Amino acid sequence: MKRHCSIEIPIADRKAAGQALVPLLNAYRGRADTLVLALPRGGVPVAYEIAMALGLRLDLMPVRKLGVPFHEELAMGAIASGGVRYLNTDVVNTHRIDGSTLEAAVERELKELNRRERAYRGDHPLPDLRDQQVILVDDGLATGATMRAAIQAVRDRGAARVIVAVPVAPSDTLAELREEVDEVACPFVPQWFSAIGCWYIDFSQVADHEVIDLLKNAWGRDLQVRTQS
Description:
- Helices cover 39% and strands 21% of the residues.
- It is of the alpha/beta class and 229 residues long.
């Protein structure tokens, strides 16, 4: 394994990825005006480590990638909670994606987004993002489509500052995101980039029950802190 900044490459797992991001976000430690929003499912274990280590609130920013037909790993766009839709027009035009194909993808992914939000959140209230600093966390970025949808969603909900925190991403995607957010934390930017999973030892799929367990632990801690205050 090789060390790049605060992270070992290849990354052991999502827990290690979150721990590696903690030093880069230490300025937000214990701040009442800051919360961590995870992009499910892969971003949740990463965000959990950050929130626990820095004493920050943890919540979700549900997003779904819109994959190109027969090439689902390539994002032609993304949708996010609150009706946000982001389109990668270059990909849409290059692959000649017509309107009906796009709308079918949106409808399909919206059903899954709504299912996940119900399953993960239950009756837990949505966080108020007005005047808050929001740290958006995922387990890595490729095209950045889902992160852009998340950024738009939190801006729409009144976030004062937006910070993107990911363990690994290509340089061109990061350069574009830096134009859209207030801060980017990313300890590893490889010279070549094929897929996020290439940089992990364990990149197994995160199950629904893992997401729910982590959220319950974090929300239980937050309730205990508020009760003791």
